[in-house]
Every structure is written in structure tokens, then in C-alpha cells.
Design brief:
mainly alpha
Length: 297
């Protein structure tokens, strides 16, 4: 019975050591990340007209790296230009389709052009059915947005995803090292009492503890650098100051956007600007969730 207490006690000591090393390593990694971000912000410099040079697609990717805002800006820009219209109601509840009836505006960007061509009646998948496309079926412009992202990475406004914190040296877990060393007397006592199975179990826990001591970062989520650089933060702040008049929070509700600036407004100020153009865009943006009853329901 005492042998079991020794094994369980050693297991508790080892697990406590794992947790302590994980907490210590996580705190150190977070501190290194914060120091790197602070230094990056301290050294960031952008040219005065950088925000105007980038354009709405680049600004949308800086403000929302998930790319959703870039597509919303493109759709809102086409609607504001009169190139994209909500199709007549088809009698069904839920979101409606949208269709491109008028010519593509001259100021349209690549994503707006891709969406306009997809929504044009001649490319409709519903040749003999309802006119137009649902907004979630329209292209997201992965190819052109990837090119813009590549340009932003080259300019220093974005980083590639999942980049580790630089100069992160592997550090040994000292708590786990001490716990691993303690396995020697524990195994010796268990072998002396002829508790072979418990001795092998303690030895296995000790081996795991040695592995944890060598690689304590495996106990927590690895820290990675933010995708948006300090230079990107600065140019985004510069753009919001430069185009402050597009902010829907300070813009009269009945004041229409110039179609040429809608994509920029959405890129910088999000869905509020979309609703300022046409609230039905947000109403139709997501596919409805369909619930299917299971057997017996």
C-alpha cells in the first residue's frame, strides 16, 4: 500500500513540475512577444501619403486580415455605383439574390470587377430560374487579394501568418528537471520493496518528465507574431485620420457616400459604413442556417 502512495505522490510532484514549467515558459514567451511588438512600434515609420497610395483593398486587408471586409467593401461599392441591385423578391422567406444590370464603373478595383462579372445575368447559374446570385456565392477574390497581401508583406505592413517570435531560445524546465532527478530514489525504493510494476511506472513518469524538461514550450500554445506589423498599424491609423469624414459614426444618416469612396469607407470603418449604403447588404450577407430534425423529433 505504501508503494502506491509513493508512486501517486511522485506522479503528483511530476505533474506539478510540468505545470510550473509551462506557466514559467508561457510568461517568458509572452514577455518576449511584448518586447518585440514594443520595439517594432518604436521603430515604425511610414511616408505621409502612404494611406492614399495603398487603396481600399489593401486598407481592408490591414483592418481585417480575414478578408471579409474587402469583399463587403467591393459589394457596397458596386451597390453605391448602381452596378449591383437586389433582385425582385421571389416570394421565399430569407435573403434575396443580387444581380449586376448596369456597366462596371470605371473606378472599380479588381475585386469589384470579379464580383460584377459573376453577378452579371449572362454568367448566372440560374439560366432558367431566379435571376442573380446570393451574396455568399459571389467570389471572394482570393487570387487578387493574395496578390495584394503579398505586396503588403513586401512593403512591411503585414507578416506571413504563424511566424514565431524571433530569437526565442529553447530553455530547460528547471522544475521538471528537479522532478526527473527525484525519480532515481523513488525507483530505488520501489525496487527494494519488489514493486516492479510500480517501479516501471515511476520510471515511465520520470522519462516523460525528462522530455518535458527538455521541451517546456510543448505545454502551452506557441506564441506567434501578429500578422499586422507596427508599420501597418501606423498606416491604418493615418488612413482613418485622413478619411475621417467617411466615418459613419460622425456622418449624417442621410448623407450618401461618393461611390468612389465607399470601398475605402468600409475598409476603414466596417459594417457601419455598409449599412450606410444599403442595410439589405448586411441582411443578405450570410447563408441562412438550416436545422434538420433528427429521427424521432
Amino acid at each position: 500500500m505504501v508503494d502506491w502512495f509513493i508512486l501517486v505522490g511522485y506522479l503528483a510532484v511530476a505533474m506539478t513540475a510540468w505545470c510550473l514549467d509551462g506557466i514559467a515558459h508561457s510568461s517568458a514567451a509572452q514577455a518576449r512577444l511584448e518586447r518585440f511588438v514594443a520595439m517594432d512600434r518604436q521603430n515604425a515609420v511610414v511616408e505621409p501619403a502612404a494611406s492614399e497610395r495603398l487603396g481600399p483593398l489593401a486598407l481592408g486587408l490591414l483592418a481585417d486580415t480575414s478578408r471579409a471586409r474587402a469583399k463587403q467593401g467591393a459589394v457596397a461599392g458596386l451597390v453605391a455605383s448602381g452596378a449591383l441591385h437586389r433582385a425582385p423578391p421571389d416570394g421565399l422567406p430569407g435573403p434575396q439574390r443580387w444581380v449586376a444590370h448596369h456597366p462596371l464603373p470605371e473606378h472599380a478595383n479588381d475585386l469589384e470587377g470579379e464580383i460584377w462579372r459573376a453577378a452579371a445575368p449572362r454568367s448566372s447559374a440560374y439560366s432558367y430560374g431566379p435571376t442573380g446570385h446570393y451574396l455568399w456565392d459571389l467570389p471572394s477574390g482570393d487570387r487578387c487579394l493574395s496578390a495584394v497581401e503579398k505586396h503588403l508583406v513586401g512593403e512591411g505592413y503585414l507578416r506571413r501568418s504563424s511566424l514565431p517570435v524571433p530569437d526565442e531560445q529553447r530553455r530547460r524546465g528547471w522544475w521538471s528537471t528537479a522532478a526527473a532527478a527525484a525519480v532515481v530514489p523513488v525507483v530505488a525504493v520501489l525496487i527494494f520493496d519488489h514493486a516492479w510494476i510500480r517501479a516501471m511506472s515511476a520510471l515511465f513518469v520520470g522519462a516523460v518528465t525528462v522530455a518535458v524538461a527538455s521541451n517546456p514550450e510543448g505545454l502551452h500554445r506557441k506564441r506567434t507574431l501578429p500578422i499586422l506589423t507596427a508599420q501597418g498599424e501606423m498606416v491604418l491609423r493615418q488612413a482613418r485620420e485622413r478619411f475621417a469624414d467617411l466615418n459613419p459614426a460622425i456622418r449624417p444618416a442621410l448623407t450618401a457616400y461618393d461611390p468612389c469612396t465607399v470601398a475605402t469607407a468600409v475598409a476603414l470603418f466596417g459594417s457601419q459604413a455598409v449599412g450606410h449604403v444599403d442595410e439589405r447588404i448586411l441582411d443578405d450577407w450570410y447563408a441562412p442556417v438550416t436545422y434538420v430534425d433528427g429521427p424521432g423529433d
